[in-house]
From TrEMBL, chain A:
<dbReference type="InterPro" id="IPR010432">
    <property type="entry name" value="RDD"/>
</dbReference>
<keyword id="KW-0812">Transmembrane</keyword>
<protein>
    <submittedName>
        <fullName>RDD family protein</fullName>
    </submittedName>
</protein>
<feature type="compositionally biased region" description="Basic and acidic residues">
    <location>
        <begin position="1"/>
        <end position="11"/>
    </location>
</feature>
<keyword id="KW-0472">Membrane</keyword>
<dbReference type="GO" id="GO:0016020">
    <property type="term" value="C:membrane"/>
</dbReference>
<dbReference type="Pfam" id="PF06271">
    <property type="entry name" value="RDD"/>
</dbReference>
<keyword id="KW-1133">Transmembrane helix</keyword>
<feature type="transmembrane region" description="Helical">
    <location>
        <begin position="79"/>
        <end position="99"/>
    </location>
</feature>
TrEMBL record, chain B:
<protein>
    <submittedName>
        <fullName>Stage II sporulation protein M</fullName>
    </submittedName>
</protein>
<keyword id="KW-0812">Transmembrane</keyword>
<feature type="transmembrane region" description="Helical">
    <location>
        <begin position="187"/>
        <end position="208"/>
    </location>
</feature>
<feature type="transmembrane region" description="Helical">
    <location>
        <begin position="109"/>
        <end position="129"/>
    </location>
</feature>
<dbReference type="InterPro" id="IPR002798">
    <property type="entry name" value="SpoIIM-like"/>
</dbReference>
<dbReference type="Pfam" id="PF01944">
    <property type="entry name" value="SpoIIM"/>
</dbReference>
<keyword id="KW-1133">Transmembrane helix</keyword>
<feature type="transmembrane region" description="Helical">
    <location>
        <begin position="277"/>
        <end position="298"/>
    </location>
</feature>
<keyword id="KW-0472">Membrane</keyword>
Length: 316, 341
């Protein structure tokens, strides 16, 4: 709403307003062999930290459970028990991450829980080499600093200072990186992304009745004014209320928007509030059909400022 | 204008296929690719290609944000399933040991040689210094590692450690356990991982590790126990020192790629060097576990000098044979680039 209004307020002749960025999420573009680039959301640092934490908890709990089971079963003596415990600690380190990412296609149980996933940045499938690399470096990048923080240093100033610097480096690299890659990711050329969740929303254009479309008719001049961006804002607005919650408020909002649009395009008739949604929807359909037609002919209009971006067209 | 607009028709025509792909992908994610039904498995790739096709068309013709976004995440999801790693664990492991690991070691001969020379240099230097002035020993060996052994220790005490007369309180397996987290594993790990900082930490660690070895040898030679110490050390030391050298060689090649990336960018050079370096690290980890078993079990059970020597160098020969002979004659150069591990 706010964005819509801000766009509205700009006077013709002023410099085109820069639209606020859609989201602040970092995006990653993969080029699969099919040649159609895919855009994925890069996983946030907090989510990755959470996944790592969950994995820590899982491995620790599993380790303790096995050790307790061994203790209760009383199968092994003291010395062998120690050996088994260390072996377990080894197995639930790097090998756990490597094997789970291999078998679960780039996910550890923690990542799965938080909806994260490792992908290869070059667009081919995730290779074993990449998985091994990113988890081997985890040993020095994650486990070592954590052990250092939990254990509280070894007493020697030289070593502690070095570990602190290393800790800073380890934290700074993913923050600075374009795709939140940690050092292991950089070496392996991988990135962690949010699991894409396909959700097909109904087509707004579909829901418009034929009668409504015949009732509200728009001329070409009226459809020339807006671009794809405004169209999609309108789409979001029309979709936003479909849950039917807070019907009154929505109705009022729609009326306000309808008024603005009618003022801008110079539409004479004012439909009753009950018909406002039908009006907006048929405007949406007409506008979309118009813009898609234009786009097909090579005249893609990103937003309503499209005219100012190029030299003034000849008056028709 | 009564017909639905073009992008709506586009969507109506293809929606059923998209839904089907979505269902197949869902099933593959949940139960695994191998449990798909025949029809689903056959159609998965076809439907995926169609969906990417739809996506690229939709980006061009459709202004319906919902469709473009849906297709985008559907294609991404299907892409992840279609291009999933599909190798069995056993196949991976056997190929690693049969071919790719020894090939990587052979390719990395120069850094391994460099690491060996550095260790040897450190050892010789420390040996010379310590035999000259035994207080140098304390400069090279941290207190907890020396465990009572030092220039001041009597020959009797040193002999006891070597021939295991004061048996470890934890027993053989306990010794193995404590070993795994012991000093040398740490050295190997650091030498590999920190090599990336322009080789410097790896070089320092190699020199230092060699120096420690040299200092130990010096105090034992001083007490006329040189040969006995060699026997004590060889049984696991051959394997263990080789592991450290191999791990550091991995670190060195990473650092070298950072220092001299050549025509590549630093990141690309690092990635390229990483292919072999990682294999070296895995080999080193495997060797360290074997060394742990040798140290924990072998060293306490086998106290005869010649048996120790035989086991130690025998293991060394086995490693050498593995590195030198395994995986030859299978198009080494071309296969190296294509192999994932």
């Amino acid at each position: 709403m706010a964005r819509w209004r801000r766009g509205e307020r700009s006077k013709p002749g002023t410099k085109p307003l820069r639209r606020p960025a859609e989201t602040s999420v970092k995006r990653l573009t993969l080029s699969p062999p099919e040649g159609v680039p895919l855009h994925l959301d890069v996983a946030g640092l907090a989510a990755r930290f959470g996944a790592q934490f969950v994995d820590f908890v899982i491995t620790t709990v599993a380790m303790i459970a096995i050790i307790l089971a061994l203790l209760f079963a009383n199968l092994v003596g003291g010395a062998a028990f120690m050996a088994l415990a260390t072996l377990l600690a080894l197995i639930f380190g790097t090998p756990y991450y490597v094997v789970s990412e291999l078998l679960m296609n780039g996910r550890t149980p923690g990542k799965k829980m938080l909806g994260l996933r490792v992908v290869s940045k070059d667009g081919s499938g995730l290779s074993t080499h990449q998985i091994v690399v990113r988890n081997l470096t985890k040993e020095v990048e994650v486990f070592l600093p954590v052990a250092f923080l939990l254990g509280g240093g070894e007493g020697s100033l030289w070593f502690d200072g070095f570990m602190l610097v290393w800790l800073l480096v380890v934290v700074a690299v993913p923050i600075r990186s374009k795709a939140n890659q940690r050092i292991g990711d950089l070496i392996a050329d991988t990135a962690v992304v949010n699991e894409p969740r396909p959700l097909l929303l109904p087509d707004v254009a579909e829901a418009v009745g034929r009668t409504a479309r015949e009732r509200f008719v728009f001329s070409t001049a009226q459809l020339e004014l807006y671009g794809a961006y405004e169209l999609q804002v309108l789409e979001r607005l029309l979709r936003g209320g479909e849950e039917g919650r807070d019907g009154r408020e929505r109705q009022k909002g729609l009326v306000r928007i309808g008024e603005r649009i009618r003022a801008k395009i110079g539409y004479e008739e004012t439909p009753p509030p009950a018909e406002e949604e039908a009006f907006l929807k048929s405007f949406y359909v007409a506008q979309r059909a118009f813009l898609e037609q234009k786009k097909l002919m090579g005249d893609a209009r990103a937003d309503k400022f499209h005219r100012e971006a190029e030299p003034e067209p000849e008056p028709r | 204008m009564s017909a639905p607009i073009r992008s709506t028709r586009f969507r109506d025509e293809r929606e059923a296929d998209w839904k089907r792909l979505s269902a197949i992908v869902e099933a593959a994610e949940k139960r695994g690719l191998s449990r798909l039904t025949f029809d689903d498995a056959r159609d998965l790739v076809l439907l995926y290609r169609q969906a990417t096709n739809s996506l690229s068309v939709a980006r061009e013709i459709s202004l319906d944000l919902a469709v473009v976004r849906y297709l985008e995440s559907l294609c991404a999801r299907a892409y992840l399933v279609v291009y999933a790693p599909r190798e069995s664990l056993t196949g991976l492991v056997s190929r690693f040991f049969a071919r790719s690991a020894p090939q990587a070691v052979r390719r990395s001969l120069p850094p391994i040689a460099a690491a060996f020379v550095l260790t040897a240099f450190g050892a010789v230097a420390a040996y010379v210094l310590t035999s000259d002035d035994s207080s140098w020993f304390y400069a090279f060996v941290p207190g907890d590692l020396a465990s009572g052994r030092g220039p001041g220790a009597s020959a009797e005490a040193l002999r006891r450690v070597i021939y295991g007369e004061d048996v470890q309180p934890l027993g053989e397996l306990g010794a193995f356990a404590t070993y795994l987290f012991s000093h040398n594993t740490k050295v190997a790990l650091f030498a590999f991982a920190l090599g990336i900082v322009f080789c410097i930490p790896s070089v320092i660690l190699l020199l230092y590790n060699g120096a420690m070895l040299g200092a130990f040898v010096a105090i034992h030679v001083d007490k006329q126990l040189g040969l006995d110490f060699m026997g004590w050390l060889t049984i696991h030391g051959v394997t263990e020192l080789s592991a450290i050298i191999i791990a550091s060689a991995g670190g060195l090649s990473l650092g070298y790629a950072m220092l001299f990336p050549g025509l590549r960018s630093r990141a690309a050079a690092l990635r390229h060097a990483g292919r072999d370096a990682v294999k070296l690290a895995v080999v080193a980890a495997f060797m360290l576990v074997v060394a742990g078993a040798l140290e924990g079990i072998g060293r306490q059970l086998v106290t005869d000098f010649w048996a120790r020597l035989a086991i130690g160098w025998g293991a060394g020969l086995c490693w050498l044979a593995w590195f030198a002979l395994a995986g030859r004659g299978e198009g080494t150069a071309s296969a190296a680039e294509a192999e994932p591990v």
